[in-house]
Every structure is written in structure tokens, then in C-alpha cells.
What does this fold into?
Amino acid sequence: MTAAVALEVSNVARHFGGLVALRDVSFKVREGEVMGLIGPNGAGKSTLFEIISGNLAPSGGQVSFFGRDCTTDPAHVRRRAGLCRTFQKVRLFESMSVSENIAVSARQCLPPGHDWRAEVVSILARLRLSGQADRMPSEITLADRKKVEIGRAIAGFCRVLMLDESLSGLTHEEAEELIGEILALNRDTGITVIVVEHVLSVLAAMVKRLVVLHNATVIADGAPGEVAHDPVVIEAYLGTKANALR
Amino acid sequence: MDAPATERGASDPAAERSPRRDRERRAFIYGFVAIAVVAALPTLPFVNDYLLAVVVRALIFIALGQAWNVVAGIGGLLSLGHGAFLGLGCYATGILFNDYGLPPWLGVWVGALLSLAVALVMGTMTLRMRGVFFALATIAVSLALDQLARHYVDLTGGDNGLALKFLGDSLWFMQSRTPTPFVYAGLVFVIAYYWITRWVLGSRLGLQMRAVRDDEVAAAAAGVGVFRTKLLGLLLSAVMTSVAGTLYMQSYQAIDPETAFGLSQAIQLQLPALIGGLGTAWGPIVGGAVMIFLSEATNWGSTKLGVAGIDILVYGLLLLAVVMYAPKGIMGLFAARARGGR
Amino acid sequence: MSGLETAMLPVMQAVLSGILVGGVYGLLSIGLSLAFGVMRIVNFAHGDMVMYGMYVGVVGSTILGIDPFLALPASFLLMAVLGALQYRVVFRRFVGHTTLNQLLAAIGLGLALQMVAQLIFGVDARSAHSIFAGKYDLIGPFFLARAQIVAFGVAGVATILVELLLRKTQWGKAVRAVADNIEAAEIVGLKSQTINLTAFALSCGLAGIAGTVLVTYYPTDPTKGFTLMPIALIATTIGGLGSIGGAFLGGIFCGVIQQTTAMLWNSALQDVPLYVLLLVFIAFRPMGFFGRRSE
It folds into this structure.
């Protein structure tokens, strides 16, 4: 309960011309937490995600990482500090093998004195990708591609892992397996996990806390059970996708 | 559950390594034979100076292609103005020697420093932007140097170019009546640049450059400083090109603005890597040899037919054919065959 | 006071002829900008299409005895057809992203076009004769070549027509839809390949017009494509890659800078400030004057 605050988003706003994508968004994520960030399409999830990971500057507000203001840090600096991410549409280095993909961040982000080769081997083993080490990204399944991307995201040094719709496009079994891997990662290494999804049902079993984004701002923040029965949330979802809450 | 997986992870790459090691050994043998053949050429009775000059030209363009390959092949940055660095290397060496009697052994470093400075300014100004802007900037820098070289006649010889004062055979001034010493010098360059390419490919910098080439946003998400990586690649390539420029100057003993900064020169710097295979250590070597062979053949054809410019036409069509039908070059075709056969 | 005026006159003259020359640079650039804006293609062979347009004027004038300005429709059609052909054979596969391979393909094509021109027309410079050639108009205290004035007019009209075509016609809407989002455009039933083909043909047709206009006062040879290309690229970048009106104004801007540099400093170095300007724009305002900020 008294774990440190890993990520704090305070009063973040962003507009594109006249369009308001985010306004006054604030929440905290504690170290070791598994948190879900949901919202219907167009709620501002992607904008927020890019602002937290450093690819987009907020129009106002700040982002701090373990108590340090990182609002102006570029993306690669945040990654080296341990703020790691995946992409909604998997973005692997297509000319590199699976192990090379992971090696990029292992060689970049590993604290001095550690062997990056051992790190790559251990990440591959943890994600059960060892058999695919020398395959090219184009030769493996989507589920494995997502795992490689997670591997690349956590290799070297990772304190917070942000997953951008990692479960979409997977079969039920594949999604279950990936959720298992992610929870195991959180349990074994204490990595804080933030999962961004637009459908609530897949998250309910996975996370202990949900932040709901709608119309550019936070409309609910709490345990999945409470949030799912929050009339504001239900209304937001009914407006877009009637059975998203099932 | 976890333990056997880890063990499999440890043993699998090792099992995969042996065919790769085989391939390396074969490449080493091919390389050794190639070096031996080139090194023996000057001693063979039927080899005349003309043939040796062709070999020197091939070696120089291989070295220049290797240098361009670092920034464009490994780093994915389209420099259309690498002639700028070649020109700076040539002019710096030549001017310092002609006007101040400085041997090329020293002039080469002045040229390299100038190239480094130009690359630093150009890179800092353009590498944060989309790749097309970098390409445009390299052309602009080349053309600006071209106009300056044509204008400051006292320094550069203007349109007519700069000819080295010939002092006779001298190692100190890197001059020779016969092409033979340049065969060996060229060979040293190609071997050295091959190892530099290999080193880059295996280094962290090389991995970063390839990551940036594939996907800049994903590279940043893997912790790679995208701008810094591109800039380092450009600086390394610029210095390599400039240093090879000194060899160019000493072997041809003359340079002019068109040869240094012209479009057809820029294309000739790109073709070895493109034909042979972008981003590979062997690509520029194979591609450079092929390019010079084609160029000699078309030159011969041109003279026979009495039509000028066939070589440039061939370069253009070759460029088009490579990027459209074989973007991975000759090495890519080999790799496809090896992969298919496995 | 009148001393200052006398001193300023040559500069004003340089600015005016810069504007006139720049209009034609603008005409060189709008086609280039169109191809980039719609397909993200940087067509390095664009200058060679201009060069062929120049030869159309030469052939029309010296062999058929037609004034280059009357040859404009023929030049437009010929280059448009050649452009459509290029699109089909080469550029079709590179639509959407400016890649290394796309740039190299365009350069390879440009070299081939240049050498084919050399095989057909030889290396010597050729010029076309227009009824406006060698005539000067005295406007106030300034001498202006009539061929340049007419060329400027053609350039301005062409720019306005292309802008209208893009903004007001059904075709223009389709082109902008495809440029904006190719997948969405296909979903609503637009044939993106056909639309791109016509846009590319228009781009090359404009190059043809630019060449034929230019050859009325500027002789051609097979390397002219490469000589003209840098200025067109700079004008396009300064105006804002993808913007038609921007490319035209960028061309005028380049013309003025070039002519005043030649006047005040040195005509042999007249392009150097343009190259520097390009770097400055790339570093500080890559979207140019009129381009949209993207990425």
C-alpha cells in the first residue's frame, strides 16, 4: 500500500489546433501495480500514451517518473530510465532477427557491468521465444511478434511497462497466454504494468485498478468491479459500444 | 517449467552457430584468395599498366563504396552528396601539397577534419528531420562546394581543376610513375574498410544504426538516441570517404569540380554498395568490382560505336534495375539462394 | 536623395528580373510539389522532364517552325503521356513513403532520360526562337525581357489553374482524398492507382510546359534537367513540400535571392545563398512557408 509512486500524470492537456484531445488528466500509478487504462475509441488513450512515452509534448501539465519530472525528456531517455512501451501495431526491426531485436535495447539499456548476451538469452527464455531466436520477424506468428516486442521493451532495464492494445488481434488462447506472461513478469520482477485497451472485458480479470478515459478526460478510477457499475462509465460505453462491458 | 526452457535457450543459438561459422570460414578463404590474386597481379608478365590502373580504380571505388555503405547501407540515410567529402579530401591534400609542400600523409588529416566539420554542421541541421530533407541537404552542400571550387580559381584551379606537382617516385609524397604502389595502397584501404564495416556491423553503434534504419520510433522506444546515432554514422562515413579521397588524389594526381562534386560521381559512389548489397560487408567489394568491369566494357563499347555517354546510361538503368528488382543486391541474391537451400 | 535612388535602381532591376525568372522556377516546382504532396514521391527525374519539354520547343521551332508558346499543348500532352508511362513502370510501387529506393529509382531514371536525350539530340546547346525573343520592354526605368514577362504570365496562370483543379473539381477532391488517406479513399470507392497516375501525368505535363516556356529565352542541352533540379527542389522545400501555391512563391523567392546575389555579390556564386537557405529552412522550418506541419 505504501509503495512508491512510479508514474504520476498531473493535469496533462493536449490540443491539436482547435481539437481537444486531453484535458486535465491526472492519476498516479504505484510501483508494482497492474493498472488498466481504458476508454472508447477517440477518448484520448493514444494521445496520452504518446505523451507519457515521450513522443508527443503535452500542451500543459506534467509527467513524472519515480518522482522526477520527465515532461521534456525525449523518448529514448525515458526508455533508458525504465519507462518502456509497446506499440498498438507491432513495430519490430524487420531486417533483424528476433534475438537482435531484443539485443538493441539490451545493449542500450543494461546497467554497466552486465552481459547483454546473457540478458538476451534470459529474456528469450522468459518469453518462451528461445526456439525463434534466429527467425526473422516476418517468419513468426502475430502472438510471437507481440512477445518479441514486449521482450524488446523490458530488456536491459525496465521499471514500468506500458502495453498498447497488446491483446488485440490475438485468439482467446493466445491472449490468455500473453496475460499469463505479463502477470508472471509483474509477479517475478516487480515491474509496474499499465495496460491500455478499448474493451473492458479482457482487462477485468487482469488488473486490480482501472482508469477510464472518456471525451479527453478521466471519468472513473478504481477497482474493476466498482468501475464497471459506475453509471458514468456505463453511459460512456453505451454511447459507443453496447456490450463492451460484458 | 522454466529451467528446461532456459537450457534450450542456451543451446539453440550454439547449434545454429555452426553453419554460420562455416560460411564465415568460406568467406575468409574467398577473401584471402582475392587478396592474393590482386597482390600478385603486378608481378605477372601479361599484366600491363593499363590493367593495373583499372584495378586501382576498382579498389578506390570499392573503398569509397564501403564508406558510403556505412551511412546509407547500415544507417539507411540517403546521402546524394558524398562527393563533397571525396572532394574535400582531394582538394585539401592537393592544395596543401602544391602550395605548402605538405606531404599527403599530413594533408589527409586536414581533409578528414574539414569533412568532419562539414558533416557535423550538415548533420546537426538536417538529421532531426525526415530523411528526404537530409538527401536534399547533401545535394545542396555538394553543389555549394562545386560553385565555390569553380569560383576561387587561385586556390582550386577553378573549372580546370587542380593537378598535383609531380616530383617523381616518392613514398613520402605518395607519388609514383606506375600504378603498382597504388594497387597495394588500394588493397590496404579495402581490407581496412572491410574490417571497419565488420566492426560497425557487430558493434552497438551498428545495431543502433540498423534499428534506426528500420524504424526510428521503435528505435527510440528501445532506448536508442536516434539523432546521435545518425550523426555518428554520418561522421564516420564522411571521414572514411575523405581519407579514401587522398588515395584518389594521389593515384589520379588531379581533381576538378565536376569529378569531385558532380552527379555522376555521386552515383558512382553509390553503385558499389547498391549493386553488391546495401548494409553488408561484402556488398561494396563485389559491387565495386562489377561496376568497374561494366564501366570498362561500356567505355570500350562507346569508343567502338563512337557514341559518348553509354556508361552513364548503363549506370542509370543499373540503378533503376537494382532498386526495382534486386534491392538487396548481389549478396541478397546469394543469401536468398542459401536460405532456399537450407 | 536622387543619388540613393540611382544606387537602388540596379537592385530594383535585379529584384524585378528575379521575380520574372522566379516565376518560371515556380513553374518548374509546382509539378514536383504535386507529386510529393499526393504520392510522397520526390521525383528527381522531374528536371529531365523539363529538359524534354525544352526540346519539344526546340523541335517545334527549328524543324516545324512553330512558336514555342504554340507548342505548349503538345508539350503538355507528350510529357503527361511519358509521365503516365513512368508511373506505370517505375513509381507505382513507391507510392506513400519517400524511401531510399524511391529516390534512387528516380535518379536512375533521370540519368537514363538524360543520356537518351544526348543520344537523340547530341551534347550541344540548342535554342528555340519565339516571337518574343530579343524584345525588351521599358517599364518605368526598368528593362525587362518580353519572353520572360510572357513566361511569368504562363507560370502564374498554370499555378492558378492547378490550384483550381485541385480545389474545385471532382478530380481534385479525389486526388486530395487519396493523398490524405489512401485506404479510406479506396473504401469509398476511389481508384487510387488511376488517380495517382493522372496526378503524376499532370505533374510531368507541367514539367513539359515549364521546359517549353523556359527554352524561349534559355538554351537547352541534355544536362539541363540536372542543372535546374536543385533550384526546383529548393523552391519546393521553401514553399512547403506538397503545396502548389507555395512552390510558385518559393520559386519567385529563389529567383529574387539569386538575381540580387548576382547583382550585389557575384554571379558565379549566385546559387550559394540558396543552398545555405535550404539548410536553414530544413533546420528551422522544414514545412516551408506554406506546408502543413507533419510528423
User: Anything to note?
Assistant: The first strand of chain C starts at residue 136 and ends at 139. Chain C has one domain: 2-284. Residues 47 and 225 of chain C are 4 Å apart (CA to CA).
